[in-house]
Design a protein that fits this description.
The chain has 13 helices and no strands. It has 330 residues and is mainly α. It has one domain: MFS general substrate transporter like domains (Growth Hormone, Chain: A), CATH 1.20.1250. The chain is globular and about 75 Å long. The chain starts with 6 loop residues before the first helix and ends with a helix. It is found in: Membrane. GO terms for molecular function: monocarboxylic acid transmembrane transporter activity. This is Major facilitator superfamily (MFS) profile domain-containing protein. Keywords: Membrane, Transmembrane, Transmembrane helix.
Length: 330
């Protein structure tokens, strides 16, 4: 699992060095042009992402699915529902990409209390999650770290992120490991690393220390996300759940980073302008991890409610059968 998602760590490591070198070549490229170079690299990533689309269904595969649904329909009483499913398969190739994306957002999953808590937790985590990546160089500049050493801080995030994703991903795949607890611990330590970052002073080694801790455990947090989602909603609903999850995470990321930057500007007259922004959002991350300890309780409650509902339905069915038998005897 970790190997499949460690590419972002590689990119963080390489681009932090490459972009630093590009910006420092003042004779032929300015800072604004360096941003254009970075935009071009991002666009290449978008083009690569566009290639990752589901393959169109072959006619034979489509007919096989139709036969399967019709066969299942013979064993069920809900024939209208099966007819709708067949119609969906027949028309799926004619739907626009935007409409298919909208249909993937299944908000009914929020009826699951454990999943809802998980989504809310990660929303607050995402508010300050990217602050370390975006403001590590600015934080080092405010702390008077030597300019030639600042790129090492972001590079250390990338290196540790790769190692964290692979290591925590490996242990997360083991059956004997409680993935949720692993996830919570990674989240809490990432929050603590964010909180202590402004206290590192002018020492580049302390900055590399907090950056490495954050990179390692934040990488593990990202790696375990899909695994924990499977434990919460099941493999069959993973795609829908991940779509809803990313919707809220994206909103948090979009509004969180500007807030951190705005708070830094508001506290610019202080010796440590990032102290309160990092402390507030680091605390949000820590609390977001702690509240996830309630997920097992919510899962047990939901399981008990389902069991009571099933027992009630069974009792009702038996009562109806008894009434029918008495009527037949009369």
């Amino acid at each position: 699992m970790g190997m499949a998602v460690c590419g972002s760590g590689v990119g963080t490591t390489l681009l932090s060095y490459i972009m630093n070198e590009i910006v420092n070549v003042k004779k032929w490229i300015k800072y604004e042009n360096a941003l254009l170079v970075e935009c071009c690299i991002i666009i290449i990533g978008l083009l690569c992402g566009y290639l990752m689309r589901p393959l169109p269904q072959e006619p034979s595969e489509q007919r096989r699915l139709e036969r399967k649904i019709r066969k299942e329909g013979q064993q069920k009483s809900m024939s209208e529902t099966d007819a709708k499913e067949v119609d969906i398969i027949e028309k799926s190739s004619n739907k626009s990409l935007l409409r298919q994306i909208i249909e993937q957002i299944d908000l009914s999953l929020l009826k699951n209390p454990a999943f809802t808590l998980f989504v809310i937790s990660n929303f607050f985590t995402s508010l300050g999650f990217n602050a370390i990546y975006n403001f590590a160089d600015d934080l080092a500049n405010d702390a008077k770290v030597t300019i030639h050493h600042r790129s090492y801080i972001v590079m250390s995030i990338g290196f540790s992120n790769i190692f964290g994703r692979i290591t925590i991903g490996f242990f997360g795949d083991q059956k004997c490991v409680n993935r949720l607890v692993f996830f919570i611990v990674a989240l809490i330590i990432s929050g603590v690393a964010t909180m202590v970052a402004p206290l590192c002073g002018a020492s580049v080694f302390l900055h590399i220390g907090y950056a490495s801790a954050f990179g390692f455990f934040s990488g593990g947090y990202v790696t375990l996300t899909s695994i924990v989602l499977i434990d919460l909603v099941g493999i069959n609903k993973l795609s829908d759940a991940f779509g809803v999850f990313l919707l809220f995470v994206g909103i948090g990321t979009a509004i969180g980073t500007p807030i951190v930057g705005g708070m830094r500007d508001a506290f610019a007259k202080f010796d440590r302008p990032f102290l309160w922004p990092y402390f507030i959002f680091g605390t949000c991350t820590v609390i977001s991890g702690i509240v996830l300890f309630a997920i097992p309780v919510l899962q047990r409650k939901k399981l008990n409610d389902n069991q009571i509902e099933m027992d009630g339905n069974t009792t009702t069915t038996k009562g109806d059968l008894s009434n029918e038998e008495q009527q037949e005897q009369n």
